[in-house]
Amino acid sequence: MKNDKTLELTALYEISKLLGSSLNLKQNLRGVLRVLSEYLDMKRGTVSLRNNNEVSILSAHGMSEEEIKRGRYKLGEGIIGRVAKLGSPIVIPNIGDEPLFLNKTGARQMIRKENIAFLCVPIKFKNEVLGVLSVDRLFGAKSVSFEEDLRLLKIIASLVAQSVKLHLEVEKEREAMQEEKERLKQQLKSRYKVENIIGQSESMQEVFEAIHRVAPSKANVLLRGESGTGKELVAKAIHFMSPRAKGPFIKFNCASIPEGLLESELFGHEKGSFTGAAALRKGRFELADSGTIFLDEIGDLPLTLQPKILRVLQEKEFERVGGEKTIKVDVRLVAATSRDLEDLVREGAFREDLYYRLNVVPVYLPALRQRREDIPLLQEYFLTKYNRENARAVQITPEVLNIFMNYDWPGNVRELENTIERLVVMCGGKTATRADLPINIRDHSFKAKFAAEMKDALPSAIENIEKTKLIEVLTRTGWNQAKAARILGITPRQIGYKIKKYNLKQP
């Protein structure tokens, strides 16, 4: 290398710029080696990185891709392997005289080896050997000193080390994030398996069977049922059990957004398409590409938007608001409603063609009052969940469970879950009693009990009144059954039956 300080400073400046120019380490290092060749008479060079007990070439100058692939060394093998193991530089003044020089890459076959010096320095960050920087230097017949070359290579190796270390840390973080992403995906997939939806009732078993049948297909699904029955949970189970499980699951409630914003939310908008549209925005259908979109309360979708939904289902395409470009998407639709779509179709509030396109596979979710046998299982699950979240150990009395079993749960499973969470949070002791229940459930249980008691007591009360009146009239008529029957407005045969029924005897 030329012992020229100006060239050296220029090279170091160019190298420092290259190392910070992008996140592509391989490309940056290739540029570093090119600078060494242009400014400092280095004809061939490599940067090799250590990975456990192996060292392999990451970037090279003056070598083909095939030669680079062959550049793999065990720790301690050859010159590069020894430098990586020992962490000290090695200079081979003439590779033709060095038996340890392996030339595994085959890059020097066409050059007389006695004209090549090989300089190899460790790439170290603090005391950690990250890799090796090696260069070939051609020289003439005269003997030369490589001290200045070695000094400069050490400086360059220290610059490279910082870049390599940063790259390795970023890669490590990226891999950790990818692993976490995969773990969360698997957790979601596991969480939303049918086996994790609680229900042993016959009606829920029918729902589970429907999920198993429809999930692997491409068919649109329409979930029917009251609010709070678990339609979103079923939609997620269908998605995560389908071939689209690795794709996105995008949910959207059609009743939660003002009508004027619905089109933009579902289909996106172009920059400047309306006041406030400062940037391009993708809609839910575009975000759900290659996955599943769950449209909850689709019965609330305005008539003006229904043709556009129908087009997406039929043609798999749409345009953003304010845009002319047609966007293609591969999306599976799972829709849900708590409304009577058939009534809406008859009233003209819902398109018939869209109804039939949605209603390919209807799945009916039962109300909680229709599967009361599942209440103890749900109660146990929610109690465990909220005890764990709140570091509590609250239990409920048999009376409370009995109230749960007899309550109609207009809000279905969601109402039961909210009630149990409230019990866990608000209960002053370790056992939740009837007094801890929300007043509407408490009052309902009292009214239900009173109604049941009245239902049982009423026939008996009526019989007592009837018996007393019968004795009174018979006594007044001297037990003349015909006269008594006329006074009571019944036939002699009927009065004879009642005397026998109440086992009445003339005194």
What does this structure look like?
The structure is a single chain. With 507 residues, the chain is of the alpha/beta class. It has four domains: 5-171, GAF domain (Beta-Lactamase, 2-Layer Sandwich); 194-366, Rossmann fold (3-Layer(aba) Sandwich), CATH 3.40.50; 370-437, Helicase, Ruva Protein, domain 3 (Orthogonal Bundle); 459-501, Orthogonal Bundle (Arc Repressor Mutant, subunit A), CATH 1.10.10.60. The chain has 18 helices and 15 strands. The protein has helices at 5-19, 25-40, 65-69, 78-86, 147-191, 202-214, 231-240, 259-267, 284-287, 306-315, 341-347, 352-358, 375-389, 398-406, 412-426, 439-476, 481-488, 492-501; strands at 44-51, 54-61, 72-74, 90-92, 116-125, 128-138, 221-224, 249-253, 292-296, 317-319, 326-328, 332-337, 361-364, 395-396, 431-432. A six-stranded antiparallel sheet has the order 3-2-1-6-5-4. Mean pLDDT is 87; it is low at 450-454.
In the CATH scheme, the class of the largest domain would be Alpha Beta
**Strand fraction:** 15-25%
Q: What class would the helix/strand composition place it in? A: alpha/beta
Number of domains: 4
User: Looking at the chains present, what oligomeric state does this protein adopt?
Assistant: single chain
Rg measurement, Å: 42 Å
Low-confidence stretches: 450-454
How helix-rich are the residues, as a percent range? Answer: 40-55%
- Amino-to-carboxy terminus distance: 141 Å
Q: Going across the biggest sheet, name each strand in turn.
A: 3-2-1-6-5-4
Overall residue-averaged pLDDT value = 87
Q: Please count the helical segments.
A: 18
Please tally the β strands and state the result. Answer: 15
Overall geometry: elongated
Q: Describe the biggest sheet?
A: 6 strands, antiparallel
Secondary-structure arrangement, i.e. CATH architecture of the largest domain: 3-Layer(aba) Sandwich
**Any idea what the CATH superfamily of the largest domain is called?**
P-loop containing nucleotide triphosphate hydrolases
CATH fold-level name of the largest domain: Rossmann fold
